[in-house]
C-alpha cells in the first residue's frame, strides 16, 4: 500500500482492498449484501470505523521496507464494523451473522446450510452443539434474536432465494429446503421474502457470464 495523501486541496483519496470469503455461511452472508455497503462518516456508529481507518493510514505511512503486519488485521476489523452496520438493518442477516461468529454455534450453522431439507427439531440442533434442549434454546435466542425454528425458516428461505437466482426450478428448490408441497413452500417463501418464488426468480435471476 502507498500513503494516502491527496495532493489537491479538497481532493479525495481512494483506498482499495480485497477479501476472500470461504464456506457456505460466508457465501450466504455475502449473497445478501447489496451492490454497495456504505457507511457515512457522520453516521452515529461510524466513530470506531474512522478510528480504525486512521490507524491504517498511520501504518501505511511508516518508513519501512516491509508491509506492516497490522494492516491485514485492521482491515478485517474495518470490514467487521461495516458488515455489522449493514446487519443492523436486516434481522435475517443480523441473526445469521451472530450465529456464524460464535464458535459454539458455527458447526450447527454449517450443518443447517449443508442439509437444510432435513426435518431439524430443536432437540436435533441441541445435540449438534452438545447442549441440553433448555440451555441451547435460551442461548440460541439470546444470540440470534430468533427461536431455532424461526431461524431455520429464515435460513431455508434465504437459501431458496439464492438457488432461485441461479435459475433452479421452484420445485427442486422447494425439495432442497425440505418442502414436498410446492404450495406450502410458496406460502413460506412469500412470508419471509415478500414475493412469490416465480416472481422473485424472474426479477432476480443472475445470468451466467459469457
Can you walk through the features of this model?
With 210 residues, this protein is mainly alpha-helical. Helices cover 59% and strands 0% of the residues. The chain is built from eleven helices and no strands. Helix 6 crosses helix 7 and helix 8 crosses helix 10. The model has no long low-confidence stretch (mean pLDDT 82).
Mind sketching the topology for me?
Elements: H1 24-31, H2 47-60, H3 70-87, H4 91-100, H5 106-114, H6 122-128, H7 133-144, H8 148-165, H9 170-176, H10 182-193, H11 197-204
Helix pairs in contact: 2-3, 6-7, 8-10
Keyword list:
210 residues; mainly alpha; Arc Repressor Mutant, subunit A; 11 helices
How many E-type strands?
0
Q: What percent of the residues sit in helical stretches (DSSP H or I)? A: 55-70%
Task: Compute the number of helices.
Answer: 11
- Biggest pleated sheet: none
Q: Nutshell version of this structure?
A:
With 210 residues, the chain is mainly alpha-helical.
Amino acid at each position: 500500500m502507498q500513503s494516502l495523501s491527496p495532493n489537491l486541496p479538497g481532493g479525495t483519496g481512494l483506498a482499495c482492498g480485497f477479501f476472500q470469503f470461504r464456506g457456505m455461511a460466508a457465501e450466504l452472508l455475502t449473497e445478501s449484501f447489496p451492490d454497495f455497503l456504505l457507511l457515512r462518516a457522520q453516521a452515529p456508529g461510524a466513530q470506531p470505523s474512522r478510528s480504525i481507518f486512521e490507524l491504517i493510514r498511520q501504518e501505511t505511512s511508516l518508513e519501512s521496507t516491509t508491509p506492516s503486519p497490522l494492516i491485514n488485521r485492521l482491515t478485517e476489523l474495518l470490514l467487521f464494523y461495516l458488515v455489522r452496520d449493514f446487519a443492523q438493518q436486516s434481522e435475517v442477516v443480523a441473526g445469521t451473522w451472530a450465529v456464524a461468529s460464535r464458535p459454539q454455534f458455527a458447526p450447527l450453522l454449517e450443518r443447517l446450510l449443508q442439509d437444510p431439507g432435513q426435518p431439524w427439531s430443536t432437540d436435533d440442533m441441541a445435540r449438534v452443539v452438545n447442549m441440553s434442549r433448555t440451555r441451547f434454546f435460551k442461548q440460541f435466542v439470546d444470540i440470534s434474536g430468533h427461536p431455532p425454528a424461526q431461524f431455520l425458516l429464515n435460513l431455508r428461505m434465504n437459501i431458496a432465494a439464492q438457488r432461485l437466482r441461479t435459475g433452479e426450478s421452484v420445485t427442486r428448490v422447494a425439495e432442497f429446503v425440505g418442502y414436498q408441497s410446492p404450495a406450502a413452500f410458496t406460502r413460506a417463501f412469500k412470508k419471509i421474502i415478500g414475493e412469490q418464488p416465480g416472481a422473485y426468480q424472474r426479477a432476480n435471476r443472475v445470468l451466467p457470464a459469457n
